[in-house]
Amino acid sequence: MSWEYLGYLASAFLIISLMMSNVVKLRWFNLVGCVCFTLYGLAIDAWPVALTNGTLAFVNIYHLFKLSKSSAN
Question: Which domain covers residue 31, as residue numbers?
Fold first, then answer.
């Protein structure tokens, strides 16, 4: 498998996430895109890509957790 395809898949998820009007869906799609980009960055030894998207994945998880707590009330 060419790692380039994983990069394209990650880009597609990020683009789709920005088309969402629902914030929870936006965060989920963005999280998947960030995880894909993190794996892509690790696969091609692009540490800035991996570290940035890994950090953004945790930001998305934080916000999803926060949103789930606020909707439970």
Answer: 3-72
